[in-house]
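W.,

You were right to be curious about this one. When I first looked at the sequence I had no strong expectations either way, so I just let the prediction run and decided to look at it fresh. Below is the sequence, 223 residues in total, followed by the output.
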Amino acid sequence: MASASRRAVIGRLLNSHVYELMQELKDCKTILDLGCGSSSPIGGLRAFSANVNLVGVDAFAHSIESSRRKGIHNEYFLMNVLDVEDKFGRKSFDCVVALDLIEHLQKKEGNRLLEMMEKVARKKVVINTPNGFLAQRAYNGNVSQIHRSGWTTWEMRARGYRVVGVNGWKPLKGEFGKPIISPARLGEWISSLTTPFVRHKPEKAFEILCIKDLETRAIITLS
């Protein structure tokens, strides 16, 4: 039992963004995953509910086919994420998420994406992104990996988002989220140990998980 508890704690530290994401989404039954890529952590929701409907959207057929083989989502759409409002309409999903996506867009496009996500979602919108601008080049010839914008705790809060710090202290990781300290396994471990300290101080975290509660906002407005 003690060993299992230790593994659970270690797993939470090493995958803080996944743990926080699962906690936010476990009450959502329909989720639109924008820029889903080939290995979205969204599939972990099936541990909470076998009835959850997960829809993946990506502009790259290879990523969608890889994700489909893994059985992560129930349905897929090959399309530009900036067309989601026209495709799905307003209030069509409990939650709309964009994990490690918005930083690949220009600022103007990113703001437009946020506006559309907030229209398509009924309950909440969830964004995961580096804390501020993180320079990143193309990877394996894929120019979509380039980072074109940065998003801060302060601006996301100004838009009405709750912000949680994830993936450890910002100075401990660099491009592609790789640890600064070598060897990489040691660097990841040291970074994970800082995770509890940045959770409530997201401005110091490597990444930020941003959540906008749309239903709560509506109740407050009506009252």
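Here's what jumped out at me. Residues 1-11, 218-223 have pLDDT under 50 and may be disordered. And, maybe more interesting for your project: The longest strand covers residues 121-130.

Coffee later to discuss?

I.
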